[in-house]
């Protein structure tokens, strides 16, 4: 990968590579390691006093036929004699080279690049490494209540897209709502049996969520009774009408489906989420069956006990069923049609599916089948799984059980709490619209950061009280630090861009070093599809800034030191703003 995004590490990789090439040429030694590979070998020492970068020399031992500690000693001696910009000195510690930063030069370099916005427009990926990726996420079922547990997929998908775009990829944001299936047929049945339910004039989606929970209970009560067979016939008729796009049940489905979609659009708008393309299960239902039948006639699929599918046992994936013996399809059936739609764009190189962890085998079978059908993009595609969001006592949220507030209700509850606890004291100083907007932004920050601060493979227990705190590892804490930076600059003034930089304290050194590493974390977050890397980085940065601010006077310092510290405040503000933007979190200027 390109090495231009971290100036300090970039200089280290460059001078080490040049020195190793000189040695190899002088002694006719074959040396194949590239500059970017040396860059990727660099680590951060466990203690700041040991330097700001460390390079193990073990990888050079085979080529140069010398002990790693001897290579490290000779390199340290040669590198210390060279002219360097951001490196103050190089120490040899056993088989490691420890590099110390010239913090005055680093502060000058970073400040200038952040001020010009060049810092955030770096080339993080080479052209050959960039992809056009369809990222599919947020697959909510219509006719159900959307609760906080559904947010994880949406928030994770938004952040992954933001990181991939920041790194230089082209992204197609896709959502795939589940608007057909047994869950829809059940609620249509419940709305029409034994008689038609009376529709409310307002709050239709809230009511529909309640009806879904009641329908689920009604079906449990029917199990094993004499009426169960008759109800199954009703469900079959509902599904037939939905498949044929005609009949009274179909008309009711269209109306109630639109209620759900309107609510989804409102939620997406509130969270500043958007999609380039909306796929629907209902659109893939009939075409997917025809695809399977055609591929069966061509000999691609086979029959097994009346079911049509493909034997993937040689890849240890078992038999993948695409049509049941009764002719009905499965999720896998519709996903074959969907993946063909995605790859109809020849520029698309892969797709990322953000779906919960229970679907692992499903996607393994899907990708292998699509690859065998002639779609090489499927081999590069990824199932990015995530774990559940639970209540504070560890129980998964459920639309059936209605064991959590519907998302719209939760939003207003959180915004009311933020206004009461944090913003009411500004009444009279701020406009009502400023208070409302800030309450909204803090609520979004709390929800999104709470979903992203841990890796997607970790379960989350949602806590309204904990997530809304202005201290600790929370979104509002990061937003508060950004607002604090804005307040300092407003009260003391912006730094002079032509000032002489003078970094005198370790708190300043630690802060500017963390600031300089932003693009490294952003790139790793993009490559690994891990927004938690940026979330954790921002939390570390915020803590470092507060240590700096509490221990380093700004207003009363001598001129060069004051201007340097103001530059650090401004750089921190910009980094937190850009980092929160990658997470999809707004950064208020006052709190």
């Amino acid at each position: 990968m390109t090495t231009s995004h971290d100036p300090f590490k970039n200089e280290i990789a460059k001078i080490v590579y040049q020195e190793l090439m000189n040695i190899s040429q002088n002694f006719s030694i074959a040396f194949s390691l590239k500059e970017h590979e040396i860059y990727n070998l660099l680590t951060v020492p466990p203690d700041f006093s040991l330097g700001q970068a460390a390079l193990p020399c073990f990888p050079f031992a085979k080529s140069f036929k010398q002990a790693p500690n001897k290579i490290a000693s000779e390199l340290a001696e040669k590198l210390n004699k060279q002219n360097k910009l951001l490196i103050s000195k190089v120490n040899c510690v056993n088989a490691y080279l420890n590099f110390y930063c010239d913090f005055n030069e680093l502060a000058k370099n970073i400040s200038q690049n952040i001020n010009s916005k060049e810092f955030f427009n770096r080339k993080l990926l080479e052209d050959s490494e960039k992809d056009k990726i369809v990222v599919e996420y947020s697959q909510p079922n219509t006719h159900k209540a959307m609760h906080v547990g559904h947010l994880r997929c949406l928030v994770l998908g938004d952040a992954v897209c933001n990181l991939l775009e920041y790194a230089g990829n082209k992204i197609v944001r896709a959502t795939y709502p589940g608007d057909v299936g047994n869950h829809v047929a059940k609620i249509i049945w419940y709305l029409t049996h034994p008689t038609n339910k009376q529709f409310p004039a307002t709050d239709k989606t809230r009511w529909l969520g309640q009806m879904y929970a009641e329908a689920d209970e009604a079906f449990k009560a029917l199990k094993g009774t004499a009426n169960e067979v008759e109800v199954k016939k009703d469900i079959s008729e509902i599904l037939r009408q939905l498949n044929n796009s005609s009949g009274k049940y179909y008309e009711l489905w269209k109306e109630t489906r639109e209620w759900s979609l309107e609510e989804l659009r409102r939620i997406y708008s509130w969270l500043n989420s958007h999609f380039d393309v909306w796929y629907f299960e209902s659109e893939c239902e009939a075409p997917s069956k025809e695809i399977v039948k055609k591929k069966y006639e061509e000999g691609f699929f086979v029959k097994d006990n009346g079911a049509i599918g493909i034997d993937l046992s040689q890849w240890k994936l078992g038999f993948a069923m695409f049509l049941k013996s009764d002719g009905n399809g499965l999720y896998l059936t519709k996903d074959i049609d969907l993946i063909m739609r995605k790859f109809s764009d020849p520029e698309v190189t892969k797709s990322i599916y953000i779906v919960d962890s229970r679907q692992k085998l499903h996607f393994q079978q899907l990708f292998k089948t699509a690859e065998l059908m002639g779609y090489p993009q499927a081999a590069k595609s990824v199932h990015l799984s995530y774990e559940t969001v639970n209540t504070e006592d560890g129980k998964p949220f459920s639309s059936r059980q209605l064991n959590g507030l519907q998302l719209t209700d939760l939003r207003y509850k959180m915004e009311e709490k933020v206004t009461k606890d944090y913003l009411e004291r500004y009444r009279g100083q701020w406009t009502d619209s400023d208070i409302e907007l800030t309450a909204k932004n803090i609520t979004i920050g709390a929800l999104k950061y709470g979903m992203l601060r841990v890796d997607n493979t970790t379960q989350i227990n949602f806590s309204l009280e904990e997530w809304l705190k202005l201290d600790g590892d929370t979104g509002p804490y990061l937003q508060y630090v950004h607002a604090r930076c804005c307040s300092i600059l407003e009260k003391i003034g912006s730094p002079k861009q032509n000032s002489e930089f003078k970094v005198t304290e370790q708190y300043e050194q630690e802060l500017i070093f963390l600031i300089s590493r932003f693009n490294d974390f952003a790139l790793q977050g993009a490559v690994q599809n891990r927004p938690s890397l940026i979330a954790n980085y921002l939390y570390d940065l915020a803590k470092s800034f507060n240590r700096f601010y509490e221990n380093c006077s700004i207003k009363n310092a001598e001129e060069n030191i004051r201007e340097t510290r103001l530059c650090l405040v401004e750089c921190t503000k910009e980094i937190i703003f850009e980092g929160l933007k990658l997470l999809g979190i707004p950064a208020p200027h006052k709190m």
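The chain has a mean pLDDT of 94. The chain is about 55% helix and 10% strand.
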